[in-house]
């Protein structure tokens, strides 16, 4: 802590009691300033931790959603592809007396897995065309209470779709009190997601009935859904 020295002219003007009062005032101001600074630092740190946790949660949810709607055989095939590649690389390095490289960072492993998953999908397309597509999961889940005023409604499909055949009005969101909610429908060909995005805020405390029409989508073989898929969720008050 810095030591304050009161100039002689101030000591003469203020006297001993005045000098003591001035020092106490300055110390109190410094104490409050330090507490304010610590509060700001703690708040920023907590916000940074929360943002990091949110990004991780979103990434984990995305990976879980991808794996949930991809057939188990494809996931296994992708994993086997990665393992076989690693084994072959290790054998080649050992044969040529080259030391093993360090363990790659997680993002590199994730990239390789997704590339392997894409390779597996190419082999899946011919098989998938023999059967109609299916909705394997959706967001929000049935009966969920959603805090976001403009949430994205997502239908995860069991196989890739023809993006050009996606019906613009294939997804409807109807509020029990607010009525039909305008939205835009799109297709994410990387994850096989049909996405509906609201064009206006949802009415708070309302129940919404979501429907994906049977003829809204077609797989690569021209097959439509066996029937419409519906669920409900609520907006937070």
Give a brief rundown of this model.
This protein has 237 residues and is α+β, with helices and mostly antiparallel strands. 46% of the residues lie in helices and 19% in strands.
Provide the descriptors you would attach to this structure in a database record.
five-stranded mixed sheet, alpha+beta, 46% helix, single chain, 3 domains, 3 helices, 237 residues, four-stranded antiparallel sheet, elongated, Immunoglobulin-like
Explain what you see.
The chain is an alpha+beta fold and 237 residues long. It has three domains: 1-68, no CATH class; 70-128, no CATH class; 135-235, Immunoglobulin-like (Sandwich). The protein has three helices and nine strands. It has a five-stranded mixed sheet with strand order 2-9-8-4-5, with no helix packed on it. α2 crosses α3 (106-128).
Oligomer: single chain
- Structural class determined from secondary elements: alpha+beta
What is the number of domains? 3
Please mark out the parts with pLDDT under 50 across 5 or more consecutive residues, or reply none: none
How many beta-strand runs? 9
**Strand order, biggest sheet?**
2-9-8-4-5
β-strand percent reads 15-25%
Bin the helical content.
40-55%
If you consult CATH, what is the topology of the largest domain? Immunoglobulin-like
Radius of gyration: 30 Å
Please state the second-level CATH architecture of the largest domain. Sandwich
Q: H/E order of the elements?
A: HHHEEEEEEEEE
Separation of the first and last Cα atoms: 51 Å
Shape: elongated
Discrete helix count: 3
What integer is the average pLDDT? 76
Describe the sheet with the most strands: 5 strands, mixed
